[in-house]
Amino acid sequence: MTAYGGIAFLTDYGLEDAFVAACHGVLLDLAPSAPVVDVTHLVPPQDVRRGADVLANAAPYLSAMVLVAVVDPGVGGERRPVALEAGDSVLVGPDNGLLLPAADRLGGPRRAVVLDRPDLFLHPVSATFHGRDIFCPVAARVHGGLALDEAGTPVDVGSLHRLPPPVSRWGTGWLEAEIVHVDRFGNVALAAGQDELDRIGSVPGGTVEVSPVGAGPADTGAVGGGVGEPLRATVGHRFTSVPAGEVVVHVDSDRRVAVAVNLGRADDRLGVRAGDVVRVRACGPRG
Amino acid sequence: MTAYGGIAFLTDYGLEDAFVAACHGVLLDLAPSAPVVDVTHLVPPQDVRRGADVLANAAPYLSAMVLVAVVDPGVGGERRPVALEAGDSVLVGPDNGLLLPAADRLGGPRRAVVLDRPDLFLHPVSATFHGRDIFCPVAARVHGGLALDEAGTPVDVGSLHRLPPPVSRWGTGWLEAEIVHVDRFGNVALAAGQDELDRIGSVPGGTVEVSPVGAGPADTGAVGGGVGEPLRATVGHRFTSVPAGEVVVHVDSDRRVAVAVNLGRADDRLGVRAGDVVRVRACGPRG
Amino acid sequence: MTAYGGIAFLTDYGLEDAFVAACHGVLLDLAPSAPVVDVTHLVPPQDVRRGADVLANAAPYLSAMVLVAVVDPGVGGERRPVALEAGDSVLVGPDNGLLLPAADRLGGPRRAVVLDRPDLFLHPVSATFHGRDIFCPVAARVHGGLALDEAGTPVDVGSLHRLPPPVSRWGTGWLEAEIVHVDRFGNVALAAGQDELDRIGSVPGGTVEVSPVGAGPADTGAVGGGVGEPLRATVGHRFTSVPAGEVVVHVDSDRRVAVAVNLGRADDRLGVRAGDVVRVRACGPRG
Question: Which of A89, A131, C178, C225 is most buried, by the most CB atoms less than 10 A from its CB?
């Protein structure tokens, strides 16, 4: 009997090689009745931060599953392979910051182990493909009922590697936040939520000014020190809160402040990408 | 007990974000035993016509399934969320023309409802991600046995939004038809079938002339008023009806008149893409 | 009762059209309880060699499955549709060289049949889409228990079409081998294994020189006759055997000699792609 509803799988392996299929073969062999959800395999190669973000966005909807994630530029080196419990789920992958944002969305990591039991691995264990040889075999066994503390040696969850938090700061009437995600549609999601938007005094139907301010943390409250011209945007609830081609700032389906263009691309209009910092300045109900 | 063999899923969400995985998580949660077939998630963003065409091509082979499709530039606006019955299947998605071509392939829509029962949705319902919050939850429940008329309020199938039909016209010895699909291999499929090909007097082994005639409906029977030079093509049954690099006009695996180049790309040779209009003129058995 | 754990599926159909979904629909209809693993559908159009290589890399991890593979530039022509047994698996596809490298990894083809029983096909059988109409229906039926010799007429496995073997040659202190695969990360895998690496006298921690020598077989033992400058590389076991940006030659997770750049792309550094030939020359423990 298993407590889990399936296995979710995220990597940067791409879809054109045999990597993903080999892992699916291992999962099917060791956990034949487990449904497998492919979260994505198109994380840009070795982009741990992007992988962590996509996993965190998916995790709340992958309830009571084993989540195995592999974006692992340090494979075969010193970084530890780990598994950790959060909410009703278990996350398995390299200890390089990839798993913690998702664990946080599920209530935070409660317990963690280092995967140091070779009898649970696929042999011979390669030095370059731990997804196939370590992470998926362990994930399949956990899905099958193996207790977390039998998967490895307990470690303090405080010892797990965390990525530095994204830039997020605010003052009177403004906030500056790092772009944590640009999606396929060009929508720009910021490291800020409804609270931060409320705090700067923006109101539904009101106007804000949105400006890119470079890739690093900005250091003044002055407007317009960035790399692009400010855009005028309406604070709304949906893309269609504004006419086609106009800009809306809203709280998106992941509950983050996002900049969007109705039937267009906000990333192009702002000239930004993930990692850049954007300033949002409230202009009041009438701008 | 369910009458359906699984759930098929088509969107323009792409494969690099968490959108598809979140939907899969919802489907797995609410319909844990339903096999899910991903039709495609690579419909170009907000290209309803392309989404409708791919769904229609897949539908005859997805028998007795619940088909949930989301290409939804009007999400959160006035367009209605709907479900409809056709053949042994149910289609779920926005009422923007996306579903009807597939329903037509299954025998035409018989009954339809507007999805207006919030108790069937995932809460909080976002304004921008109805695939996750409305369409997939309803599809999963229908797969689980919820009757169509319990999924919402009945509406006349005649009230459902239809895309304008593609250009398709013919005269003595010629037809002009819109390109409804260009596939990965560069094959060019037209809004015409075997009947239209017969009607112009083309015969297997005979020769036709194929010319692009621009993006709009052509208005005369004259040859060569288009944007490119005519190609000579053989009427055949398969790609290998002609030598490598030569052009064949055949009825394709979706039963549409198609232009192909054996071991080459017809779209490049004609300089066309979906939405353009092509003229086919019969030249007789010996050209 | 079936002897197989599922169906694996590889094509060059791409992920944007309805081809893959139509095949999944057929598989689901005829083998509703079979798990389906998509190996890849992004083989470059009609690139039989690449398809064969990816299938061969995945096959050892897809144990006791029915593998259906379709990269089929000759569809509808003279090439035979076949099924063959190897290891605990059955492979189904066109007889154009696509299946044999995978069969070899599973112990070699034991028995083969030509698929010539139309009653097993989906009708009407199209001339251009045998994945949907022939290969998937037969694969599903074999998964369901149909014996191989009931799927068609036996043929000598020696009669099956084989791709020409990749270039692989060596002399005193050097080897020259064709690049059989460049993966998403830019890692360059050669038609050579640990034995060939040992034979040239390379030792772990030692240095080798890696040079591209063009697209054809090289004909001398002289160094540097290729198209690029030699790279100095360390013989190691993992990417992290060398500092970031440096070159390592190792035996990869498919047990092939591979050239990699730690946190970089070896294909770019060497200016090579699959099909090119690379020379590796041992320089001894200290170079």
Answer: A131
